[in-house]
Structure formats: C-alpha cells, structure tokens
Amino acid sequence: MEVRNIVILTGAGVSAESGLATFRGPDGLWEGHRVEDVCTPEAFARDPALVHQFYDARRARLAEVEPNSAHHALARLDAEWPGELLLVTQNVDDLHERAGSARLIHMHGELTSGWCLACNNRFPWAGEMNASSSCPTCTAPGMVRPDIVWFGEMPYAMERIEEALQRCDLFVSIGTSGAVYPAAGFVQTARYRGARTLEMNLEPSQGSYFFHESRIGRAGILVPAWVD
Ligand code: BJW
Predict the structure, then answer these.
(1) pTM of the model
(2) Can you list the pairs that 92-96 forms with residues at least 24 positions away whose Cβ atoms lie under 8 Å?
(3) Among 24, 70, 139, 185, which has the highest number of CB atoms less than 10 A from its own CB?
(4) Are residues 173 and 218 in the same domain?
C-alpha cells in the first residue's frame, strides 16, 4: 500500500537518550514517588506543594538537556513529508519542538505550561511559580497547577488524534511501554482502519502483538535509520 498519511506516537523512551528518565522500570521517574502521590488530581488537592516540587525538579532537568538524533530525525520527516503527518507525543518535555517538529500534539500536556483552575486560562510556566502563586491572568492565588494530564483526566486533542488515526496508512510507535490508555489503544484503531503498524522500542511493548513489525533497539539509532 502506498503511504501518504502517517501518525507517529512517541513516549518517554524517545527522550531517554537526551538524559530524561522514563516512567517505568528500575531507574524510572517514579522511583521514590508513589504515582498516586503526584500524578492524580486528588494528589494535587491533598498536597499541592509536593506535586509542584516534583514538577519543578522535572522542569529544572529539562533545561539541562537537548533533543537527540531521534527527535531530529522526526523533525526532518515532518519538514519533508508531503502527505499528512501527525506526531502525537505522550511526553511533557519540549524536545520535539526544540528539534523543529511542527505537526505535533502533546496529548498529556506540557511541563512548560500552567493552568489556572479559577479562570481556566493556560499560560507559559514562569520559573518562580509555586503552590501559592497567583494566576497571571485572573490573579487568583493558589489556583495554578501544572498543565499535565493526570490519571483519570481526559488527554488533549483526542478528536484530532482519532481523525488522524482514521486516515493514516502508517502508524509508528516509538519509545513507549504501551501501559497507559488511551495511547496504548491507538495501534488497534490504526490496524482496524487498515494501516501498517511499526513499533521501535528497547523491548517489546505491552501491545507488541498488535504491530505488524517490531524493531528492538535504541530510538537514537532506529529512528534516523527509518527516516533517512
Ligand atoms: C526506549 C529507550 C530508548 C527506554 N529507545 N525505547 C484499566 C484498563 C485500561 C485503562 C485504565 C484502567 N484503569 C485506568 C485506566 C485509564 C488510565 C490508564 O491507562 N491506566 C493504566 C495504568 C492502566 N488512563 C488515564 O487515566 C488517561 N485518561 C483517560 O483514560 O481518560 C478517559 C478517556 C476515555 C476515553 C477516551 C479517552 C480518555 C490519562 C493518562 C494520563 C497519563 N499521564 C502520565 C503522567 C503525566 C505526568 C508526568 O509526566 O508526570 O503520562 S502517566 C505516564 O505514562 C506519562 C506518560 O506519558 C505515560 C506513558 O508512559 P511511556 O511514555 O510509555 O513511558 P514508560 O516509562 O512506561 O515506557 C518507556 C519505554 O521506552 C519502555 O518500554 C522502554 O523500554 C523504552 N525505552 N529507553 C527506545 N533509548
């Protein structure tokens, strides 16, 4: 089948070689934190200072790292691909856009964005913000939260993603364990629509069975080899 429309899903593994920790596994980001302490709206309501502290540390780390060869290869593909292309990332880092990807959705939110629960406005996260900061728009105190999709919340742009999946001829999943829905189910939607499906990961993902092809290895090697 001739490929015109591509959907690419990325996860934490694509940023691992830049030096950002993945979520699961022995050196995972949640080591030392119980996920339910930091990654749910209930946790934020219970202890906003702890949750802010966790994301402050992630933002500080993000400022120290750079996009790697996988991010750059995907940005080249985006610039050169004449058909439809949508890069859907589960990552909350900004390494895809720093590499130059433009057709990009952050389905789980962004570390560099804040969200005011009082006025619903989203705004760039300023370095000095903390649990008691006021919203830059409505000035309500203590109502800003990281603009991150936590467990039990609806991921962003689901309608746009679903439409792209319904039109794609190729679905590629890179650096994700396939442990978190709805992203873990995209491969099945794409297959149902008749797309070819390819995964690139350090190990077979939980949904490996659904892919036509699995390439096992580092994204920094596999992705440029696939793109170029
Ligand atoms: C490399 C590599 C290298 C390493 N090269 N590879 C029961 C059944 C089904 C669903 C549910 C259920 N109970 C609850 C749910 C729903 C829940 C869910 O999925 N839970 C599961 C735990 C079962 N999902 C939700 O709540 C979502 N919302 C929702 O469902 O809303 C309702 C809805 C209904 C209908 C339609 C749509 C929606 C929200 C999920 C929000 C996820 N948020 C997080 C945290 C963000 C905050 C933060 O960043 O701190 O997002 S969870 C965390 O996991 C993060 C990630 O984006 C996400 C995925 O992780 P990822 O990227 O796959 O990372 P890892 O670490 O798991 O894997 C990395 C992989 O890379 C590994 O395989 C490595 O081997 C590999 N790797 N180095 C290539 N160099």
Answers:
(1) 0.96
(2) 92/58, 92/148, 93/15, 93/20, 93/62, 93/65, 94/62, 95/14, 95/15, 95/18, 95/20, 95/65, 95/66, 95/67, 95/68, 95/71, 96/10, 96/67, 96/71
(3) 70
(4) yes
Establish whether residue 153 lines the binding site of ligand 1, counting it when its CB lies within 6 angstroms of any ligand atom. yes
Task: Write down the pLDDT at residue 174.
Answer: 98
108: annotated active-site residue: yes
51, 113: one domain: yes
Please tell me the residue having the least CA distance from ligand 1 atom 44: 150
* Best mutation site among 50, 158, 181 for ligand 1 pocket (most ligand atoms within 8 Å of CB): 181
Which pLDDT score is estimated for 195?
98
Last residue of a domain, one of 117, 148, 179: 148
Report the domain count for the chain: 2
Q: Which of 9, 22, 94, 216 to mutate to test the pocket of ligand 1 (most atoms within 8 A of CB)?
A: 22
Taking the chain (228 residues) in consecutive chunks of 10 residues, what is each chunk's mean pLDDT? 94 97 79 76 91 91 97 98 98 98 98 95 88 89 94 97 98 97 98 97 96 98 97
Does residue 20 have its Cβ closer than 6 Å to ligand 1?
Answer: no
Pair (27, 103) in one structural domain: no
ipTM exceeds 0.85: yes
